[in-house]
Every structure is written in structure tokens, then in C-alpha cells.
Amino acid sequence: MFINKFFLFIEAFTVLIFSTSVFADTLFIKNGDRITGEITKVEVETEYSLVAVSAERISTVILSNEDKNQDTLIMKNEDKISGFIYKFYIETDYGIVEIPKETVKMVSFSVRPPFIMGWEFPAKGPINSSPVVEIEKNRVYVGSQDCLYAVDSSNGELIWKFQTKGKIYSTPTLYRDFMYVTTEEGYIYVINTKDGKVKWSYLLEDSVYSSPAVNEGLLYVGCSDGKIYAFDAQSGKLKWSYKTGGWIDAAPGISNNTLVIGSGDYQIYALNAQNGKLKWKYATKGNISSSPLVTDNTVYVGSWDHFLYALDVKNGKLKWKFQAGGPFSSSPVRKGEIIYAGSWDHFLYALDVKTGKAKWRFDTGAPVDTAPLITGNIVYVCSSNGKVYALEKDTGDERWSTTFEKRIKCTPAEGKGFLYITCYDGSLYALESTISVRIEK
After folding, report:
1. What is the reported pLDDT for 415?
2. How many domains does the chain fold into?
């Protein structure tokens, strides 16, 4: 559903080229958003031949094969349109976007299959963490066995790297101009994204395998010593800690001053996010290595006891639970009225958010360790056998897949026309979407 329109008026002669190139000045819109204009002169050049098109018949250009109205021109990669465009509309679900017309060089849709290999960045040793994209600075960050890397998201060139003490097993967290990173040796690093320099660091008493979380000025880190720690995110001053009965190896979920964390003692804990006082706890029958998804009224979290739980965020009472054929290690993701979660039984499940009943499931062929990425109408999910799948969000039908030689344990990240994947072979991969539009004056 299109919520707002962004109106861009271009009076000069304009060429629209379907290209995979990425430029610095870019306006992003999601797949399914429309480009509409009053086009008075049109020439369409395809990979087959020059096609005559009646300009009066074209009122919309859509990068999709789902809407084939008579007045819609469906473009393929590398096809070209040239013409005088008097008025240019962009309908997007992001809201109104303020961009001067002089700066717009490309309009790129969200990543959508099919993909080609864009570039590869080799790190040292296997990569266990997911990539983190900072679109505004054209960067992608990744933690490896020895370093945190900042890489140019368009071409894979190294911008800076920071040597850590200990291996990075968790996904770094971007908050404002800083990356928050944890290591197996128990270090917490806060790194300035501008130059890769440390703002502050802190050494805990045990290993850290969970990703840090930042909320309202506080940094939260779960540790193998069974404690969840809260620090001042700017200064590094310890504010409070809470001891659970087991190890913690997943990031907390936070909403409305409620922090929820799972522990190796099979318990789910809800704490006051500001002072660490216990609100409630809920006992499962398995380890919790799934990061909870916390909404205004419900906590969704998976357990190794094969259940995904939906709990009341106020009191921890069970709303529903769904049983899979194996442990839930990946974190659940909500999109609309559907919860998506992967299990070690090889399936990705789509569950009704209110009842927990399965809408569909997809067999990935191997355990699913990490959360899926949902963008537009596509769900991207990685399985531990090196497969990456693109599925229809509403049906689970497979649209595209690819295979890497090594294990994958990451949630894909979306960038400017790229899908970023990390792999146990020690590389960060940028898969380039073949669907984009460039506007040249």
C-alpha cells in the first residue's frame, strides 16, 4: 500500500537507464513503489531490438511483472527510455522524502532477485556475524576472527579496520556514529565509524557471544557469566547488572522500558530496562539462544525445546506456543500479521501473529540458525548448508536461490541494490540486484 507521494519535477531532457551501477546521490524506494510521469517522447531500446512505443500509452513505469496494465511499461535490466519528462512522481511507503532534484542521479528499488555477483571482500578466518549496512555513508561493516572491517558498500574497498582482542562471534550494533562490538575474550569496544578509533572499551569476566543492544542511551550486553550488563552508551560507565541462572549468548529485546533476555537456565527474563529489576520470568524446557522480539504487548522467543513462545509483555503469561521439529535458535521477525522464524528442523515458518498457527513453511534443506530478512514482498533466509533463498512473503514460494561453498550463519543485509552475505569461507559477498533505475540529466 502506498502511503505517501514524493513529487519531483524535472524539466530538462532526461534519460532513464536500467543499470546495476550505484551512485553517491541515491533515493531509495521499495520494490512495488511506482515511478509515474507525463512522458511526451519515448524510445525504448531492449537487448533484442529497438521497440516503438506510443508515448501517450505510458503513464507508469514499474519494475515488476505483477502489474501489466496497458499503460504500464515493464522494463528489463539494461533497457533504456529517453524522453522529455515534465512531471515525475515517486510513491513510497517511507513517507515524504526531501531531496533536491539536482542531486538525484539514480532511483533504486530494494534488492530483488535475480542477482549477480557484485564483489567479494576477503577477511581473515570464518565470519560468524551478520553484515551491518550504513546506507547514508555507503558502508557495510563486518566482524571476523580478528577485526572489525568498514568496507565501501558499492565496490568492496576497505575503508578502515580495527584489530580486536578476541574473535567476533556476534553481529556488531550501529548506533548513531558508533559501532558497538563484543568479542570472545570478553571485550566491549565502542568504535567511531568515521575513522575506526576506539571511544571506550570494557573487559568483562567471561566470553561474550551475544550482540550488544542500545536503547535510550544505555548499552546492554549479555555475557557467558550469566549476567546482563547495562552501560552508559557514551561514557562506558556500568549502570547495573542482573545475574541469571545460566549463560547468555543472545541479544536482548527491548520495548517501552522492558528488556527481555533468554538464558542457558531455560528461563526468559523480563527486566526494567533502566534499573535492571526483575518484572517476571518464564520457564521453558530448553536453552534460549534466540533473541526475543518485543512489541508493545507481546514477546516472541524461541527455545531449544522446539517451541516458539508468544508471551504477554506485561506479566509473562503464555498467549500461544508453536512446536517445530527441532530447536529454535534464530530470532523471530514480524512483518504485518505474520511472524517468521527458522528452526533446526530445516524449516522456515510463517505463523499467524495472534494464534501461532502456521500459514506456510519452507524446507531449506539444513538447520536455520539466523533470522530472515524481509524486504518488499520477499523473505531472504540462509541455511547452514550454504544456501540463500528468496521466498514470496505471503506464500513461501521459492523465487530464487544460490549456493556458497561454506556454511552461512548470517542474516542478509540490504543495501543500495545489493544483498550482503557473510560466509564461513572468510568473505563478505555483495550480490547485486539486476533491478534498478538510474536518472541522468
Report:
1. 86
2. 1
